[in-house]
């Protein structure tokens, strides 16, 4: 059964049609590359899945049950997590503090409750080990590489036993070595049965880690193919309009 299924999803803002009649499904443990030029509708589609926008038309299902989201916290409760392009990390805090930001653990009761730093450090360390990352719980984010920052953001998604992780341009502004580290993190999520939607402009990254590629152009889906049966040249043609649809 598909972990996520979209049927005839559309979204318009007044006269602007951002997403037009898009249907797709994503299986557990599948990595799907979502590609398209700027303004193709990728971000709008992902924001509907993440609970930021309500679809104007169409239905969403998760594990076979209809999914109606009014805000991002509801998406998180259903196991949908998003790693934003800017990562939304606090540079002056430790890795562990960022992992638990907004979901801090406490011990004690009522006015006597205090933050349970020991448990948060231990759990963050377990998550980094699970992701095979060199990031350490007590490291300050401002001193981290781009790859380590991505590890912190991805570890945060693991707190709630995510079923699907939406990743927005995770390799856009990092070095080649750090790109390899991030792609390895995506492999780790897939190995744990978590579906990943990878929004990216970087063709080599999508073709090295994704099982399938979906291409949007002007709000419409123009391709949904296994990576093995496509090519960077074909996807480029679909993005630019040189190839109409496959």
UniProtKB/TrEMBL annotation:
Domain ABC transporter: 4-243
Keywords, comma-separated and alphabetical: ATP-binding, Nucleotide-binding, Sugar transport, Transport
Organism superkingdom: Bacteria
CDD domains named in the record: ABC_Carb_Monos_I
GO MF terms held by the record: ATP binding; ATP hydrolysis activity
A Pfam entry, by short name: ABC_tran
Protein's name according to its UniProt entry: Simple sugar transport system ATP-binding protein
